[in-house]
């Protein structure tokens, strides 16, 4: 039985709904890796373009808002209709890149050098967990998947509650401040985001083994990039808390 992924874009029944294929029409790990690099290249290109606009003194708020809203819409469409992934994943990457470029530039302006530190940490975490997964130091058992899924869902609910309460001028204690408890909460969230990478690796591997259709390579790349973006943002928030103390 295909395992559960904590990543909301990758779940138990995603591959089951799309049948099994063979030959050149099936999903492969190498194909998914290639699609992931293409997606990241588009994301980084858009991010650097908006970054440069910010440091030229231009207003990047429209990019941040448009990227966030447009990226969310694309993500929802891709999640519910994986067949659209080959067409919409590059669009999602460009929109998400615009949002991250604007966000990163503002953090860089406030805390010089922080974005390079965050990028390096994110890359190191990715390859460390990939190595741990490939050598089976970390195994994506059913209990492991269930725990990460529950933790991810809990974090999503906390963020949703924080957003809704914020509309009424109510702040969730510790979630956004730089107190020791606030830093501890950010560390936990970073750890959960990182562990989602293990589930994504397992999900992609199982999809290739089950002979998922070729377009699911784009869907697998999309799910992995969603996790990487989340991890990057959470590390960015964590380091900004540490730098502001």
TrEMBL record:
InterPro entries: BaxI_1-like. Coiled coil: none annotated. The chain crosses the membrane at residues 36-54, 60-80, 87-105, 111-132, 144-168, 180-199, 219-239. Keywords: Membrane, Transmembrane, Transmembrane helix. Pfam families: BaxI_1. This is Bax inhibitor-1/YccA family protein. The keyword Transmembrane applies.
């Amino acid at each position: 039985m295909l395992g559960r992924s904590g990543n909301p874009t990758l779940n138990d029944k995603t591959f089951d709904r799309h049948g099994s294929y063979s030959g050149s029409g099936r999903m492969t790990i190498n194909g998914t890796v290639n699609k992931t690099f293409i997606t990241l290249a588009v994301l980084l290109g858009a991010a650097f373009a908006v970054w440069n606009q910010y440091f030229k003194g231009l207003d990047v708020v429209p990019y941040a808002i448009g990227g966030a809203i447009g990226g969310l819409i694309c993500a929802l469409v891709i999640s519910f209709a994986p067949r659209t992934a080959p067409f919409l994943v590059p669009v999602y990457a460009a929109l998400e890149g615009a949002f991250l470029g604007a966000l990163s530039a503002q953090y860089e302006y406030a805390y010089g050098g922080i974005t390079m530190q965050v990028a390096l940490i994110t890359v190191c975490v990715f390859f460390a967990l990939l190595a741990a997964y490939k050598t089976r130091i970390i195994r994506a058992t059913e209990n492991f998947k269930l725990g990460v899924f529950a933790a991810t869902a809990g974090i999503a609910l906390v963020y949703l509650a924080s957003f809704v309460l914020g509309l009424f001028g109510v702040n969730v204690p510790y979630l956004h401040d730089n107190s020791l408890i606030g830093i501890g909460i950010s560390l936990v969230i970073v750890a959960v985001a990182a562990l989602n990478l293990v589930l994504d690796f397992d999900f992609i591997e199982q999809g290739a083994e089950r002979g998922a259709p070729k377009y699911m390579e784009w869907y697998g790349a999309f799910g992995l990039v969603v996790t990487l973006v989340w991890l990057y943002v959470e590390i960015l928030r964590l380091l900004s808390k540490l730098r502001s103390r």
